[in-house]
Amino acid sequence: MSALTTPPLALYVHFPWCVRKCPYCDFNSYTLGGELPESAYLGRLARDLEAQASEVAGREVISVFLGGGTPSLFSPRSIGELLAAARRVLKLAPRLEVTLEANPGAIERGAFREYRAAGVTRVSLGAQSFDPERLKALGRIHSPAETRRAAEELHAAGLANFNLDLMYALPGQDVPAARLDLAGALELHPAHVSHYQLTIEPGTVFAARRPPLPDEDAAAAMLDACAALLGEAGFAQYEVSAYARPGRQCRHNLNYWRFGDYLGVGAGAHGKLTFPYAGQIVRTLQPREPRRYLASSGAELVRRAVPESELPFEFMLNALRLKGGFDATLFPARTGLDWQAIASPIDRLLRRGMLRRTPGRCRPSAQGLRFLNEMLLEFIPETAELPGPSALSTAASGEPGLHRRPLFTGSGGAIGE
Q1: Which listed CATH number (3.20.20.70, 3.40.630.10, 3.40.190.150, 3.40.50.1220) goes with 9-254?
Q2: Most buried of the four, 29, 61, 225, 369, by CB within 10 Å?
């Protein structure tokens, strides 16, 4: 066994309500049927933070992600109060990255300036498409004009470090249409683009009434064409579905993909904490349904120590998403396991050309990124039950292509974008 070290720590806060649930969405989100319980939820979040603070006493929080659902349904004042509550019980880094997910159709004019004053430093805007018909097919409540207006206001508010979520392989979409959507996004001068394929997830409206989607070859052609366009515009791909201008990678999500720790606060939020003195990595899970979470005392928080046999898979599920891969010293430091625990599957993937090895580093090849599922299966112990999607730190808004993305994805309530 190697020495388990304490990784960087982040904070994820989940806001579970939306104006309307999208038919493709399998996240832990709920249509707002009445008045938003803003004050009650804010109070419960503050108690949640206080209850968990002792477990990370003295550790610095490097980033905060406010995800959902639609966090921008909550007022700038509430977001400021939440960050103040976090500051009272946690050690927040001086140059803290605070990301707010926002829906262009659920943001008041001028609000971004107030969110910035409240402490938000980065925004993730759910554009999804710039075609009105496709937005309608996706069940989105905003128009392309509202996305453009929101981007203008972000720049005016001094929040130029914003992400645009954009989907491709939409109903009736072809390569020129996908490129046109991306061109529309680039015109808004985002710092970051999350570009991911629409996939049909179990339990969604689209799973029950499947829309006609482009086939895999067409989707792959869209991805390749859009990746080239992003590259020409100065965006570098650093993760399966993430592209950024220089220095604008999402620090919060990078911490997930490097198997860092995070507190999970809010309805259905997941957390991961490392305890080197006990030799344990613990996953946490909050009550999922908002009413149960609001009524809970904190004792309902589920804690599960990750078995040693599952750690290689959990580490690789995250690390292999990164185009640059991971430093060989990171695996033993973040899992407490020796390299020998993954030596055999690593060697097999190297021989198959799925991985590339450089001195001290291991990264997926172009083929490996294309077929991440196949690589990840190499690390699942034969005797282990497959981990549930929501416990595995996967991106909340998706990855490019069912044939190109990890198998185990879904409504984690852990990562935005």
Answers
A1: 3.20.20.70
A2: 29
